[in-house]
Amino acid sequence: MNASTLSHPPGTLPKLKLLTMFRLGLFQMGLGIMSLLTLGVLNRLLIDELAVLPGIAAAAIATYQFVSPVRVWFGQLSDSKRLFGYHRTGYVWLGAIFFTVIAFLALQVVWQLGWSVQNNGWTTVTYLWTGLLAIVFGFYGLALSASSVPFAALLVDVSDEDNRSQLVGIVWSMLMVGIVVGAIVSSKLLDTPNICGAAILSYDPNQVTKNANIPQLQQAINPVFVIMPAIVLLFSILATFGVETKYSRFSSRSQYIEREDQITLGRALKVLTASRQTGFFFTFLLLLTISLFMQDAIMEPYGGEVFGMCIAQTTQLNAFFGMGTLIGIATTGFLVLPKLGNQRTTKWGCLVAATCFSVLILAGFLENQTLLKSGLLLFGLASGMITAGATSLMLDLTAAETAGTFIGAWGLAQAMSRGLATVLGGAFLSLGKFLFVSPFLAYGLVFALQSVGLVCAVLLLNRISVREFKANAQAAIASIMEGDLGS
Fold first, then answer.
1. H helix or E strand, kind and range, residue 178
2. CATH code of 269's domain
3. Residues 293 and 282: beta-carbon distance below 8 Å
4. pLDDT digit string (tens) for 268-302?
């Protein structure tokens, strides 16, 4: 008998205990660590130490986000085909094995790209290594989807309506804990004096001078990409071991549940533009996501080029943002949302975040690391406010009968927006380096555009009306759904 078929009769399944919820959160904690390695360490290496143009580096890394529509297939596959006797757990484990191994392989391609830039400049061979890096990150995204989508489905399978929000809250918080812990541990592993040097000051794409000692970098960084992914793989196994067998309600209700991983991109766009209000909210989320996350691919290089920080020090920057986000979400949920409501909370979060980018620019002008860290902590607090407020607003702008479809559409659109944000961050940094001699001004251009984007998001937010949505949008979404079912 397969493990996933060892289910209890309906109504007799045990409830998830708090300890099990935190154990499940270990998987998300691992994803936080992997995010730190890819968006933190690798992009810093590419842009600062190896002198790869920011737009090219960001585009290669962002490939893993642009394969997110494949989540549809992995979600449906885990519904219909068991792996190692499980509907979810087998996919989580196999995907985790692949994305941890691929992260190490991506680093090896990064070294080859760095050697090619140093020895040959931007020749055909260099561009081929860049293309290979993009392909490797595409496979990384596939492996990540193969693991994370069945895990998200598992969270639905093992929870009920009365404890699902608690489970999701704990698991999401563990993602930020992973970023904080990963930043601290990685910075300790990378705290090697021989890889702290002067920042790259030349932005000439034809530069062929050897700017970094790659063998020294390899000696310091390769072990990190062995130790940390091994810990993440262990977390993935510990998080899910035995949970599906004991708690899964999949067999009794799978045919009635519609989740994010079942939503195609075309259907997502239909639902998100079904009415004026859903269109406003979709545009708001698109602009908000891009404006918030454009700095993902440039923050560590900012610390290196403008502040002269070592790789270990720039990795620690993630801890300040992560701690701020955790505090922001917790305090907003208990103190701010009940008083201001979701729309005003989101608005003030956006305005505070826009102000934070001014602080980050000022920190660069003064080359003040303390101000930079304070700005990131405050930006984390603002992001926490925005997350809590926008999520609550999203739930208000969801028709109950199509909740799974709408939330799924939001999730898919947000994933694509994150990829676009990474690319745009690198592209605007490349533009800034072309326009300005000072690295401070190049990075300042990106932060200024993010601030403007958040102010524009607030203007869109002011046009969103929950009352109008409840009056008109539900019927529009229902007609979309009926049309899809009839086609």
1. helix 161-189
2. 1.20.1250.20
3. no
4. 666 666 667 777 877 888 899 899 989 887 888 89
